[in-house]
């Protein structure tokens, strides 16, 4: 696993920990999934 992927995962986890509402969690998870998908395909 590259450092870029680890950074994206870390950023997603940090964003997930920072959100305050269930809707915010869903949005953060969705954004994290998109970031991971982009990291894997690029």
From TrEMBL:
A cellular-component GO term for this protein: membrane
UniProt-listed GO biological process terms: response to toxic substance
Alphabetized Pfam families for the sequence: Entericidin
Name this polypeptide is given: Entericidin B membrane lipoprotein
Signal sequence, renumbered to the chain: 1-17
Organism classification: Bacteria, Pseudomonadati, Pseudomonadota, Alphaproteobacteria, Rhodobacterales
Species this chain originates from: Pontivivens insulae
Keywords in alphabetical order: Cell membrane, Lipoprotein, Membrane, Palmitate, Signal
PROSITE patterns for the chain: PROKAR_LIPOPROTEIN
This protein's record includes keyword Signal: yes
Family statement drawn from the similarity comment of this UniProt entry: Belongs to the EcnA/EcnB lipoprotein family.
């Amino acid at each position: 696993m590259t450092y870029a992927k680890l950074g994206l995962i870390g950023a997603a986890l940090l964003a997930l920990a920072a959100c305050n509402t269930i809707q915010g969690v869903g949005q953060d998870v969705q954004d994290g999934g998109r970031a991971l998908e982009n990291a894997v395909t690029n």
